[in-house]
Amino acid sequence: QVQLVESGGGLVQAGGSLRLSCAASGRTLNSYTMGWFRQAPGKEREFVAAINRSGSNTYYTDSVKGRFTISRDNPKNTVLLQMNSLKPEDTAVYYCAAGNFYVNSAGNYRQRNTYTYWGQGTQVIVSS
User: Fold this and answer.
1) C-beta neighbour count of 96 within 10 angstroms
2) pLDDT tens digits, residue range 56-67?
């Protein structure tokens, strides 16, 4: 079992920055692909970013490329999402997820059901 706890959400003005953190317990994260998803009111949960087991490769949805950066610190069992140049459309609950899989060319990291463990989420509100 892996327990994930997100933190770092809050209210920020458009153009501002936030850094989300995902702390894991129960098992070390170095055998898990990690992802961030988000869910806005009335919408489905969507993929935001992912990072492979070693941290050597990162993946982003188009709308956040160049603004968000995912990283991991395996010894500290932590995954971060640095969010810059925030926009009102980034407003959502952000979820951290862990999956015991290798990234493939079909983009399995984008699929929610590829991940086994989920955090409770942290709210991000971007005001215009």
Assistant:
1) 28
2) 999 999 999 999
The per-residue b/e assignment along 12-41, b for 16 or more CB within 10 angstroms, e otherwise, is: beeeeebebbbbbeeeebeebbbbbbbeee
Task: Yes or no: say if 99 and 37 are a contact pair by the CB < 8 Å rule.
Answer: no
- CA-derived radius of gyration, the chain: 13
Report CA 63 to chain centroid distance, whole Å.
14
Cβ 95 vs Cβ 36: under 8 Å: yes
d(CA 127, CA 118): 27
SS3 110: helix
The pairing of strands 122-127 and 10-13 is parallel
Q: Which residues of the chain have pLDDT under 70?
A: none
